[in-house]
């Protein structure tokens, strides 16, 4: 499983979605989404479970996959 940053980057690219567009869909501020996409869940700003659920819904991903990605260290691929 990819880490959260990789999952967000790949999914946003596939869906042709910018951090700004994702922010508009979720209500999460754009700078937070950029940090999540860059640093994953191990960065200086940690996503809440509510934010992870909102990201999963907006990107049409299974919540379990997003939660698993949030627990996977960066650079670790299964």
From TrEMBL:
Pfam families for the chain: HTH_26 (PF13443)
HTH cro/C1-type domain ranges (all copies): 8-68
Listed name of the protein: XRE family transcriptional regulator
Natural source organism: Streptomyces ficellus
Lineage summary: Bacteria, Bacillati, Actinomycetota, Actinomycetes, Kitasatosporales
């Amino acid at each position: 499983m990819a880490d959260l940053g990789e999952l967000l980057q790949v999914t946003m690219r596939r869906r042709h979605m910018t951090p700004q567009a994702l922010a508009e869909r979720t209500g999460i501020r754009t700078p937070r989404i950029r940090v999540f996409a860059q640093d994953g869940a191990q960065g200086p700003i940690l996503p809440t479970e509510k934010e992870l659920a909102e990201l999963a819904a907006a990107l049409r991903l299974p919540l379990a996959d997003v939660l698993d990605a949030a627990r996977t260290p960066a650079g670790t691929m299964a």
